[in-house]
Design a protein that fits this description.
By secondary structure, this protein is α/β, with parallel strands linked by helices. It folds into 2 domains: 7-184, Vaccinia Virus protein VP39 (Rossmann fold, 3-Layer(aba) Sandwich), CATH 3.40.50.150; 188-257, no CATH class. Helices cover 48% and strands 17% of the residues. A 6-stranded mixed sheet has the order 3-2-1-4-5-6, with helices on both faces. The protein has a two-stranded antiparallel ribbon with strand order 7-8. The radius of gyration is 19 Å and the shape is globular. The protein binds S-adenosylmethionine. S-adenosylmethionine is lined by residues 7-8, 11-16, 21, 47-49, 51, 70-72, 97-99, 116-118, 121.
Amino acid sequence: MHKTNTVYENAVTTHRSAESLARAHGFESVAELAEQLPEYAKVIDVGAGASPFGVEVAKLRPDITWVNFDYSYGADPEILKEVSIGAPSNVEYVAGDATKLTDVYEPETFDAVFSYWLLPHMSLDEPGPARAAAEAMYKVTKIGGRISIGSRNDRLRRLFGGKDQYNTESGSSEEFADKIVAGTKLSKSASYLQKLINETATPFFGTSRYAKREGKQKQIYDPKAGEYIPLSSKEGVKIRGRLAIELAKRAYINKRRK
Ligand SMILES: C[S@@+](CC[C@H](N)C(=O)[O-])C[C@H]1O[C@@H](n2cnc3c(N)ncnc32)[C@H](O)[C@@H]1O
């Protein structure tokens, strides 16, 4: 089986609603978030995926520039085509690796940096990639700018503060990165579940656009064989069963947390 270390291939390209992401970042609504951004703000959503978050905010604020940054835009042109349909001209789509954000942007470029459900995937195996991405996000944020990175694994569940808040403590992007990685790293049991889900669900849902294109809707990805197999085959049924159990477990855990 083809094994890869690229996080992209382990993190499904999701499309949470704009309102749910605004709330996840600590706002009451997209409208409230849009209101709070400074005039002519430059904003980036790192690991934006297929979410309409930036589009909805940018429609309310034609003066700002919003960058949706995601690895998948380069890896799958179909994803880029789909996500950019109907986007206003103040939204830019940039393909790239979050760990190399500083290769693309100068230090202190953005007034606000958002990132949701990217770092928890990046620290599943080891903290290095998540730490590099967090450091890069810190560096490209203006002094006094805002950084919001989720999902938080603690009860706070959000982080929203000025960059200078960290400067006064330590002035160091390394310390910021350590805090963020610790705050977004999944617990042992959640990591285990997430990996199982990634192994079965992600190759299927994450590449569902490919599957649609190639007329493979009735097939499911078999991670062991490294190929799509019929849903109704013996192995296909087993994978679906395993997937259902993992998703049910996840739903149960989420329900207990609420
Ligand atoms: C779980 S999705 C989250 C999408 C969106 N933020 C949301 O909450 O719906 C994670 C996204 O991170 C992207 N991604 C994974 N590794 C990346 C990397 N190294 N650099 C940039 N994007 C990455 C994936 O392509 C995917 O779209």
